[in-house]
Amino acid sequence: MSYSQGTKLQDKISQEIIDCVNKMVYKEGTNGINVSSVLKELKITNRVFYNRFRNIDEVLLIISQKVVKEMRQSILTPYDEKHNYHQYIISIATNVLIKTYEVKNNFSDYMFINDILNKVNKEWWVEHIVVILNYGVKNGFLKPVNTEDIGYAIWCFCRGFNVDAIKGQLELKEALKIFTVAFTAFIDGLTLNKDPRPLLKNKVRI
């Protein structure tokens, strides 16, 4: 796991602290996690902690950076041209939602605050969404739209829905049902020609 700039010692104890905070996040969420709770859990002193990290936010930042990398894997799998394009693009979006529930269920507030201020992360997602859209436009599946604008709109829609669904404690099954209907309607509105390639009977998580 990479460390943020400013981290002091990087050793076995540093990783134990990160692992401890990571477990606490997924068990209890970020609220209430502080240096004192980590010291108590690991039976270490203030000095041990502050020799390695400036504060608890630095540890949370390291964990959030790992979460961002995990989230990005949902869109990095190359497209298999034997598969239906429209199903592929919808599957990516639903898989991002599933991954969001897996890694952010107890981390949503902290991740939302940090992600929304992270211009680099937004630009990364929009750039990769645009690549997928450009393929659809080039091959006649999507209308000749401004893919950068649409890519940004998709980022806003997916991100806003995912965060609100989690903060609203919507069950994943219900969230997927609503999201799939809405996002499919969005893609249908962009569709120029239906992809003749057959749909996969069993949708594989990409």
Portion of residues in helices?
55-70%
Shape field = elongated
The helix/strand order is: HHHHHHHHH
Question: Which stretches are poorly predicted, pLDDT < 50 over at least 5 residues?
Answer: none
The helix-and-strand class reads mainly alpha
For the terminal residues, how far apart are their CA atoms?
Answer: 24 Å
| Total strands | 0
Largest beta-sheet characterization: none
Which value, in Å, is the CA radius of gyration?
Answer: 20 Å
Strand content: under 5%
Q: Averaged pLDDT, please?
A: 86
Q: Please report the number of helical segments.
A: 9
Explained architecture:
With 206 residues, this protein is an all-alpha fold. It is built from 9 helices and no strands. Helix 1 (12-28) packs across helix 4 (56-76), helix 5 packs parallel to helix 8 (147-167) and helix 5 (85-104) packs antiparallel against helix 9. It is elongated, with a radius of gyration of 20 Å.
Provide key terms for this protein:
9 helices; mainly alpha; 206 residues; elongated
Q: What is the topological layout?
A:
Elements: H1 12-28, H2 35-42, H3 46-50, H4 56-76, H5 85-104, H6 108-116, H7 119-138, H8 147-167, H9 172-190
Quick structural gist:
The chain has 206 residues and is mainly α.
